[in-house]
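Entry type: protein chain
Record version: 2
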Amino acid sequence: MTESPQPKSPQPKPGVLQIHAYKAGESTIPGKTRVIKLASNESPFGPSPRAVDAARGAVEHLELYPDGSSLALRTAIGAAYGLDPALIVAGTGSEQILNLLAQCYAGPGDEVIQTEFGFLVYSIATHAVGADLVVAKDRDYRVDVDAVLAAVSDKTRLVFLANPNNPTGTMLPASEIRRLREGLPGGVLLVIDAAYAEYVTDPAYSAGHELVCEAIQSGADNVVVAHTFSKIYGLASQRLGWCFAPASVVDALNRVRTVFNVSTIAQAAGIAALQDKEHVEHSRQHNARWLEEMTAALTGMGLRVPPAAGNFLLVEFPPRAGQTGGDQAAAADQHFRGDGIIVRPVGVYGLAHCLRITIGTDAQNEAVIDSLQRFMAG
């Protein structure tokens, strides 16, 4: 019997080598001392002043370990969203929650479904645990529930679904999310990533908390809703997220998460951010107004913008002058950079003909419109 040759050095698990490392949005442009950064869907208004004050106060006790259960934070989240704190798990950003769910519920030989233009973290979380990724095709930049259901097999363990979706910005109404949940087998965990939920103003939308409750009542325990403080609450640097889940899922997550996964500063800032409802509402209304105005301005230039529900727009560039849409998007990106504006190319999602642009301040949004008008006229 021939023995397999031993490797000369330690080797990572096969799934790890399938991962394409996540590349964050750029923050600087060589030769530019001041830039407008609209590449990472950050809040143009930053955190609530209350959150800043709370964070400063927490700095006074850096020698102490944080509350490992994040009880005060979970209680504040429960009060703000009308949820049971016992069914909430806090994480180092919602990214940690997503990775922990994959760690708990999938592994080699299992399948995880994500949509065609789903957030890149889903594939990273899937491959990191050695599971196989199955991609359900979207339809016109929207999640196709029928395609997701058709992709389910007896190996399916998780379905990752962002609503609103990043990077397309589109959303599914609550009725479609319900149809998806009802069509999934009880043993498949539906993970609804609601990172941008707080921006949505469409009455047909729901983050999905009621589906978690219904799953619990039916004994299926197969729905989780994940949230983040990085977007409307403006706490991206603090890496703070959470999920609402059935007790059995909460128990599994708490068994594998690190003991002190959320810092004292992040917990304090999160609690204070939840209490400043005026700051949140101001951000929501500003965003809603500019989604409408930016969409009108860009479509008026001959660009296509799918209906957006988050705090960003996906902008599709048509071919022209013998160039492809991808050529046009790349040229527009370079034109923006020349004007000191950083947006997000999304070729890694298979959308080389598009750019993603975060909604900024009034002045920043006006600068984007002006820059694009000059580009399209050139």
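Comment: The mean pLDDT is 94.
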